[in-house]
Amino acid sequence: MRAHAVLLACVLVALAFVTAPGSSIPAAALHSETLECPHVLDRPILDGVISPGEYGESFLDPGTGLAMFMQYEGNNLSLALVSPGQGWVSIHLTALAPGMPGEDLLLGYVDNGTTVLDMVDHGWEVHLDTDVGGTDDVLSAAGRRDGEGTVIEMTVPLYSSDPNDHHFEPEGAYAFRLAYNATSLDPYAPASAHTDVQRFVVGPRPPPTPAATVLTLSAQGEAREGGLLVLYSRLVAAGGSPLAGRSVSLYQNTTFGWLLEEDVRFEEDVADERGDLFGWLLLDEGVTDSDGKAEHLVTPVGGGPITFLATFSGEDGYASANATLAVDIAAGPPSTAHASTTAAIVLVVATVVGSVWAAYAFVALQIYRISRPKKAQQGREAGSAKKTRKRGETRG
Amino acid sequence: MEDATQEEIEEVLLRPVRKTGRSVYVVMAILGGVVAWGVFAYVVQLREGLAVTAMRDRVSWGVYIATFVFFIGVSHAGTLISAILRLSGAEWRRPVTRMAEAITVCALLVAAAMPIVDLGRPDRLVNILLYGRLESAILWDFISIATYLTGSLLFLYLFLIPDLAILRDRLGAVGRLRRWLYRTLAVRWRGTTEQRHRLARSSIVMTVLILPIAVSVHTVVSWIFAMTLRVGWNSTIFGPYFVAGALISGVATLLMAMALFAHFYKLHAFLTRRLFRNLALILLLLDLVYIYFTLNEYLTVAYKKEGNEALFLAAQFGGDFAAIFWTVQFGGLLIPAFLLVIPRTRTTLGIVVAATLINVAMWLKRYLIVVSTLATPQMPQQPWGAYFPTWVEWSITAAGFAAFVLLLIAFSRLFPIVSVWEVAERPAAPEEGTPAPAEAIV
């Protein structure tokens, strides 16, 4: 009977675990190497719930069950502390360099709301920053406490003006340890457990996003073959202010130009049928004036539609920009530089060449007549030729 | 050999036609091998396309066109010797007229083949006739070369007729095919008054006509380049420049051929030192004319350095083409000039060395004209073109040269390379009071 009761109890307990709702805390990573607190663009949602992938880095100490999630956005550090207990949970940010007075301590608990205290631990006693001439620099916080434990999410500045706060620099290395109290919400109650000192580095700050620019291209002047076509490119910042002293390149679409560099982005798809950016012939490079305008002088060769492309490759914190313009070039008058095929020239050439071949025909006729000598003359000459040969032999 | 009888002359001059020494066969076999290898290379080119050559979109002409222009130049040998010297009555030219005319025809045949090889697809040759435009220098070239080749063949044949009759009547035991060939080509020549009269009239017509045709051929060939706007080709003096180069190539080739035939066919009695010296002086004169044209060409360009011409000149004088350029100027023009001017070096050997240097330089000059211009950037920001001929191109070019020599040797095996009847009919110096000899064929 007793055995049946124990077995039933075990089954019930097992069922409780199986049917219990899923943990609100995603698995934190077990790290054997230094953590990296990465820079991300998206801030976490401070709601006391840590969603998968919400934070860029995580740490779990299996011995204590304490976990930490971290990342930084811009100038703010986002932290999430998880403990298996019902009391407070904290992170000590220990100094690596000498001279740091105490440890920066952030301690939070959930009791009719979430409280996060910005404190300093001098080793023998703990104080609120505000009690020792500092400031409360916790920007925002949220938390949750349930049967599984406590979750505290918070945002603090990377570097505040409070000397009691730890300052973090991108690519700097720092140390921390986590602690919690299993039951007490009293921030001055001793910890039930804490982790060993761990290390993390703050990841590099990404390069600043270049400011957007707008490039336009317009034409003025003679849009005809051999004429002087003036193209104006105008470069302004996104707010409309002209950008002076910037280099703008002008290209023409041809069948024999060269591939543009890959970092030139196009507002429209100007690739040819093969999808290659092929056929752009560099015509001119201009520099923008105080109005953001650059002038390009072009003499179109050949009539028909021509597509021009102006590009700004981006510099000094400004993003690249492009603009295209299709211009219909009117065909010019026939060039007088080349000899035109007039009837007179054809006649002269034909006469000259024809005369030569007529002479050839005359010569061919002579050869034919040589092959058809008159018989009587042939007989007389044959006799005469014999006498001449004998005379020659005698002379020799 | 001035007092030799007809029989003595025939004995010496017909010997190479009657029988051939082993050394000639060996040479022909080697040349045949080179030609066969060239044919193989051409088959590779036909199968794989022009991608097997180094010609691309930038340098689209290479050694084929350089060789074409070179052989057009060599073909001027017959023009100068036969036509000009005949008209001027220079009797000393008689032993070399046949050789010069044969060089002309053989060179033209090889020259005509080169653009066909360069085309890639030989069937496209028909497009010149079907779609040719009168504004195109290519069409002018086609017409002028066809006209010149026909005229040269007629010119060669006309003066060959009396010798063909000698071969028909007195060569001795030969194969049936050769006997038929001589009989047919001799067109029943018996040396009658009427026949000699007709031959004389035809000869005068052809002698006078071939001169302007030859000049026009090389002028038109030069216009393929000069009618463009390319830096290096856009020149007003390309016509006479090319004609001068052609004449110098022709005479140099003739001198080289004379030396070889005299050696292998034992024709020293006819290809005398006086003949070599006379032609050497003509060669020297042409060399000086060519140097004059070269100075004109480069000095006018270097003075102005318009546009990309500065780049072109820099490449010639001190850049990628400097080695070839200075080899042409010093090795091909100046050193031969010294060899020909100084009497001590104006020996037969010295003359042949000078002629060889000139010919090598003339080919290199054509290569410079074709390749260095095409490689020069013609537009802003354009990079230099690159051209390194492949084994296919070198093989076919070598086959062209081998074919030229082979054709010449084959001609000399079938027909006397020195004109028998012209040498035999060389007029003796007239005695005082005696009338001039009967009408002589020019």
The multimeric state of the shown protein is heterodimer
Low-confidence stretches of chain B: 429-442
Distance between the termini of chain A: 157 Å
Task: Tell the overall outline of chain B.
Answer: globular
Q: Summarize the helix and strand pattern of chain A as letters.
A: HEEEEEEEEEEEEEEEEEEEEHH
Distance between the termini of chain B: 21 Å
What's the number of extended β-strand segments of chain B?
A: 0
The chain pair forming the largest interface, with residue counts per chain, is: A-B, 36 and 38 residues
Element-level helix/strand string of chain B: HHHHHHHHHHHHHHHHH
| Uncertain stretches of 5 or more adjacent residues of chain A | 15-25, 258-277
* Radius of gyration based on Cα positions of chain A: 46 Å
Largest sheet of chain B: none
Strand content of chain A: 35-45%
Number of helices of chain A: 3
Helix share of residues of chain A?
Answer: 10-25%
